[in-house]
Fold these 2 entries.
Entry 1:
Amino acid sequence: FPWRPSAMESRSKEDVRPINWANRPKSYVMRTDDWDEFPNGRWGDSSSPAFGELSDMSHFYNFSLGSEDDRRAMLGHSPASPTDVYEVFARYVENKVPHIPWCETPLQPESYLIQTQLAALNRAGFLTINSQPPVNGAPSAHSTFGWGGAGGYVYQKAYCECFVSPENANKLVAMVTDHPSMNLYAVNNFGRELRVGVEEGGITALTWGVFPNREILQPTIFDPKAFLVWAEEAFSLWTSMWLNLYDFDTPSFDQIETIRDTFFLVAIIDNDYIRGG
């Protein structure tokens, strides 16, 4: 699969996960470790009693970025402007910073194809934490995009998830409105939502594969309900992993707090995986 399967026997048949925890897989495993069943074949209804509650914030995984000195070295000793924060995200995309709170591993190889564009987006204030380019029928043994073993073909829709200011959120809403193949989901730290091109339900396969003698596999999906759960975790990381590095009422504290409390977390899907991206 595009994600690393768990070694737990109880999850041996799990083959579908939401994309939002792609860069924090241990958090997803911990948040779902008491489920009676795990999605197999199709994601289905994430609120099903069999799946348990994704929304339990009590024990989500908070990986360490090292000591406070280590975190300051990565995230900034005294960021005083939005540009200082934007630069941290850009440097992560350029592999100059090994981790950020939302990404426990370096940038995924599939995003190297759009690395330059991602760095530019981050420096412009579109703080990306998850992305994938479109793929249309790559061999399943492809060195970058392949999964599932040889003999098949894999596909994926372009996806981007980022923190943005209200002004930039409005720009993205206008862009998606002009592109019927796109969907946009956004929410801020206080629960205000923005949606474009979204119908009720809205669960979307983002990655799928076609293999001999097997049904279609769709290991990565987007579920609007799961996105809202993820957003709660994502906004909390501004506080637990970054804001608490600085003394209250300092310029650095105020800057991170302002971003946390004013920015939207936006997810954009381009359904046209043939011409999209």
Entry 2:
Amino acid sequence: MSSSGEYQRPAFSCGRQLHVVPDLPKALAEVHDHGMHFIVMPLVHPRYERSEKVIEKKGMFTRSDMVLSSREWSRYVVGQISDWIMADMTVPSRREAAAKAFHQEASWAQHLSLPALQISLLSKDCAFMAGCLNTFLQMGGSSVYWVHVPISNTQPVGAVTAEGDETNAVVGNDDPWHWWATLRALCTPVSRLCVALEITADLPSGEALLRWMGEPVKAVIVPTSIFLRNAKGFPVLSKAHQLVVKRLLKYDPQFIIKGNTTGEEGDTPYLRYLKHLCGVLL
């Protein structure tokens, strides 16, 4: 805590992404017990798809803001826009309803004073999404928006294998960096629009990877599924993945652990490994 009373995040900050959170105070307490600092969670239950009529009624659509203190909301919870909203924005017949739902959830995030709101970018077809996002970017204020983008597409071009061997494929327009570049070009240029970069099992080519080194990467999402097991059974990253994480450290990102864990220690071995990789004293 600074002398002015403003919150200062730890030098190494790591959060936990959760898909469904039935008991938010309990989930936050468990995350803190494991040594992590914040959670990333959907603001609304993932299955609660609302029609335009339901949204226009302006009834209760998610949990009360009273389940946490204003201090906890503003320091320890990163909201996530519902995935169905982002998917529907790519379907012309469903865009209007998706836009109203986006406005509803983003307005709620502002009401809660969340430190950031995460939005999944699914393709380069993002003009409509940019229009919705610009409504909030142009309002001013302190709200920060993390655009969740995979570092490589499911079928990567110019991919690097886990062993570090680069293929000869040519980087094309389906490189997720192009998705982000398109969105950024369509949005109001503000520092509050950032990248939450997900490290995927397959890594892009060196050329594609260099593009990300010039972007405002504020969070690095590390799925548990990309970890290997060492001789002692502990989770570790391949040398290629280690190099990517270390190169991203110059942006001082916050880390997010995502996915299922096994064993009695749960998230602890993954958190311990990331701290080791980032040179944090344990």
